[in-house]
Structure prediction request, 309 residues.
Amino acid sequence: MTGVVIKSTGSWYEVRTDSGATISCRLRGVFRLDETKDTTPLTVGDRVTVADTEGDWMITEIAERQNYIVRASPKHKGARQILAANMDQCLLIVTMANPRTSTGFIDRFLLTAEAYHIPVHLVFNKQDILDPKGLKKQQAVTEIYSHIGYPVHMVSTYTGQGISELRDLLRHKTTLVAGHSGVGKSSLLNKLDPALDLRTTDISQITGKGMHTTTFAEMHFMDFGAAIIDTPGVREFGLMHFLPEQISHYYVEMREFIPLCKFNNCMHDNEPGCAVKQAYLDGKIAEERYINYLTIMADYKANYKHWEE
Ligand SMILES: Nc1nc2c(ncn2[C@@H]2O[C@H](COP(=O)(O)OP(=O)(O)O)[C@@H](O)[C@H]2O)c(=O)[nH]1
Ligand SMILES: [Mg+2]
Ligand SMILES: [Zn+2]
Prediction:
């Protein structure tokens, strides 16, 4: 029988079979001996084959992944944790207020998703609380992203704005839902399908750092025919395994200019003859995106040696 891993708690895995049953499985011992630096050989979204062995369900085969996302393992230095696999797309939920998502966070997320070949839609939640100033800021931010090809959606789980369009976007697909704590991910999923009944956290109790109400990634099936992966830990998502000079290639609007730089190892900072910086100076690359790029670069430069350990 085949199915998909919908939850992993370490030694047990919940698998939803293709016939729609949910079963608890163990992983056959041999898979634990793998030579990668992954902390777990199996992740939510993995396609598996299961067999009934002496009354226990065993996972006997893992299909090759179409794609996956990783983060640095919070527990084991130098190891990586695969957060999810086999996604068709990703929804990054952001808010312009209460809490405000920074474009720096959005840009880090987008470049990582580019590297893993996962299309991203930006969902701006909490439309109901934006004052005129907030709306103006949102207008500026959404223009930056839609201009470079990322679809943007304005929604409110309170008023229902944009919810039916989101259902159309998710139907018949597997979608990773990401975003900081407090932006309304759980509320949004409940709004899309109230039967999910996920726990939400009152905004006044959200303290910021280290605040996660979801401990393990989990796949949910919605009544209108959508599979959703809800995952914690996007704060650290993807901050590894890239070399600083790769980053600009994952900045979609920089790609056309990179080959025009004078030096082929150009980092697009202060090198002479840099076509990317020139594009920014000419207004062809948004200032906020370029500034964030420099910050992200500096960060990677400071850290990448550590990832190679
Ligand atoms: N004003 C407003 N608040 C929202 C909206 N969606 C969610 N919230 C609130 O935001 C807080 C965090 O929601 P939650 O779904 O737990 O966020 P999560 O941490 O991303 O899963 C809760 O207090 C929700 O009631 C919205 O569309 N508008
Ligand atoms: Mg939540
Ligand atoms: Zn350059």
Observations:
- The radius of gyration is 21 Å.
- Helices lie at 103-115, 132-147, 163-170, 185-192, 275-281, 287-307.
- Residues 209-214 have pLDDT under 50 and may be disordered.
